Fold:
Amino acid sequence: DMEQLFSKTLTVSVRTRDCEERKSSIRITVDQSTTSAHKRSLCVKLTDDSDPYFLFNLSISEEDFQSLKVQQGLLVDFSSFPQKFIELLNLCHSEQDANCPRFLLQLCSQGPAPEGLSTLSVVETNAFKHLNHLSLRLSPGSDRDVKDYLASCLARLKEDKDALELRLKKTEDDLSRQLSCTQQ
Amino acid sequence: DMEQLFSKTLTVSVRTRDCEERKSSIRITVDQSTTSAHKRSLCVKLTDDSDPYFLFNLSISEEDFQSLKVQQGLLVDFSSFPQKFIELLNLCHSEQDANCPRFLLQLCSQGPAPEGLSTLSVVETNAFKHLNHLSLRLSPGSDRDVKDYLASCLARLKEDKDALELRLKKTEDDLSRQLSCTQQ
Structure:
């Protein structure tokens, strides 16, 4: 069972190993999945609407969260973590068009560009320093992950296209009906 | 360098190992590619517009063709093979809605459904027997192949959708302009 908690396109500052930095529009999706044994896990997915091959993901189980909590000194528990994470993402989203955004998303890739692990960080910048609120290590999607992601994009896009075709048909019908009314 | 020679949706009689047989609409694409060393090869691709994961392909180099020629007693050479193959596909296409099509495409899978090799055959049925005109052994696409195929589908569908959106916009503008003309 899968529930989508968040899906927005956010401005992310992407840093690759050779130190170049650029702003990218990256879609961040947060899903909560529950297995049949009532085990919950949180899935974080980064995709790029303009690059079908771009996919990073991370699945956080309750056990994964315990070590993340210790490592990063988090004070929330697993059940309230998703909400806090989404609050941080929304803070970044609300400030992303500002000149000097106080909250910023950074994606730093450790290895060579497409293969290595990448770290997504929520960074607050104040007058004194950069404060790291959260860092998550994401893995690049495998061929199979990307395949599944693209198949779901394709299905959604087909639905959109079918809906558009219906709307166009209806608009054309309206047009010709109204025209014939006028000409009578 | 890649040139598309053929791409049509054809009715194929699909047989899996457990002997069930069903008719499927399968897109067959034939491309000719030329490498920088002027080596040509023929690429045959089977896809299913309703199943994003369905992909079989075969690449035939000039050397591959020589053994195919011997095995199946072909009388044409590599340069005229594509045209002859496409003639056979068009024969199947022209007869596919007939009650008893004389030419028929068969796809038989040897192994377990998604993994194994499959054989695509062009079979003529006359009053006396089934005549096998050509059999090609296709491999199921890897995750990477399917990924690339889906990315190209997605790009094409996006173009279609953008074109539809433009047309809808134009039709709506036309409608409101004609309406305002009428009301004056």
Observations:
- The radius of gyration of chain A is 21 Å.
- Chain A touches chain B through 27 residues (CB under 8 Å).
- Chain A has two domains: 2-141, 143-184.
